[in-house]
Amino acid sequence: MSTASFDSRFATSPTEVKAMDTAQLRQHFLIETLFIADQCPWVLSFFDRYLTGGAMPVNGPITLETPANLKAAYFLERRELGIINVGGTGRVIANGETFDLARKEALYIGQGTRQVEFLSDDASDPAKFYLNSAPAHRNYPSRKVSREQAEVVELGSMETANHRIINKLLVNSVLPTCQLQMGMTELKAGSIWNTMPAHTHDRRMEVYFYFDIPKGQSVCHFMGEPQETRHIWMQNEQAVISPNWSIHAGSGTSNYTFIWGMAGENLDYGDMDVCPITELR
């Protein structure tokens, strides 16, 4: 029996999004369920053909299957894969090489890797492998990145409610990739805003994955053109697609953690067009 499911989301223009109601916004951009026992759901965005998925092995290993939609001999024939574990400890086996991943550790798997398996160390506390994948033009070596190996930046302040730690995990200042970049931002207690001032970047799209949201709390994710913003209320362990023309920022009813993943034309982390806070509409 197949463990993979596949959903496609078409690219949308700012003009279309202006006319969307709440249900339509959520249908196009929100990824509600990523972790199902022994399953591997995928959502393909036609913005830069970015894939977002999750693997939660409970009763045994999950093999990375190749959805028919990819028209590929194997999943990573023309793709690269980024993984961050947000659950219990687990293992990823890539072409016979085993990588142990604790919570909040990352793994890059290069294009051309034929076999990938996901395993949990403890079925009662399964690993939750959050997965991002982008098209790749060449092979770079697979490599684990621990929290100690990340490039860490501290930004914001308590006064502006956005004191946060940015962990750059799978970025070109840490290891080579074709276009995929991933990292994790942790908000300090008392801070609720991420990515302020908000920005756009026409050179790449992005996906945000929110987790560590306390029970009974939520995050409001803001998107849209700077002068025509919209919002989507999000729950724990949900992701949202951000087009290249859209801002991407969030405010929670508590502090939380989120993973940012992006792909596109360049690998310059600082490539962004900042939108002054007072000019947002």
Automatic annotation (TrEMBL):
Q: What is its EC number?
A: 5.3.1.17
Kindly tell me the pathway this chain contributes to: Glycan metabolism; pectin degradation; 2-dehydro-3-deoxy-D-gluconate from pectin: step 4/5
Identify the InterPro entries for this entry: KduI, KduI/IolB_isomerase, KduI_N, RmlC-like_jellyroll, RmlC_Cupin_sf
Q: Which CDD domains match?
A: cupin_KduI_C (cd20491), cupin_KduI_N (cd20294)
Q: Does the entry feature the keyword Isomerase, yes or no? A: yes
Cofactors that this protein relies on: Zn(2+)
List of residues binding Zn(2+): 199, 201, 206, 248
This protein's UniProt keywords: Isomerase, Metal-binding, Zinc
UniProt xrefs under Pfam families? KduI (PF04962)
The cofactor note from the UniProt entry for this protein is: Binds 1 zinc ion per subunit.
Can you state which reaction this protein catalyses?
A: 5-dehydro-4-deoxy-D-glucuronate = 3-deoxy-D-glycero-2,5-hexodiulosonate
Q: What class of enzyme is it?
A: isomerase
One GO molecular function term of this record is: 4-deoxy-L-threo-5-hexosulose-uronate ketol-isomerase activity
- Key word Nucleus present in the record? no
Domain of life here? Bacteria
Query: What is this protein for, i.e. what is its function?
Result: Catalyzes the isomerization of 5-dehydro-4-deoxy-D-glucuronate to 3-deoxy-D-glycero-2,5-hexodiulosonate.
Q: Which HAMAP family does this entry report, sorted A to Z?
A: KduI
Under PANTHER family, the record lists: 4-DEOXY-L-THREO-5-HEXOSULOSE-URONATE KETOL-ISOMERASE
What family classification does the UniProt entry report for this protein? Belongs to the KduI family.
What protein does this entry describe?
Answer: 4-deoxy-L-threo-5-hexosulose-uronate ketol-isomerase
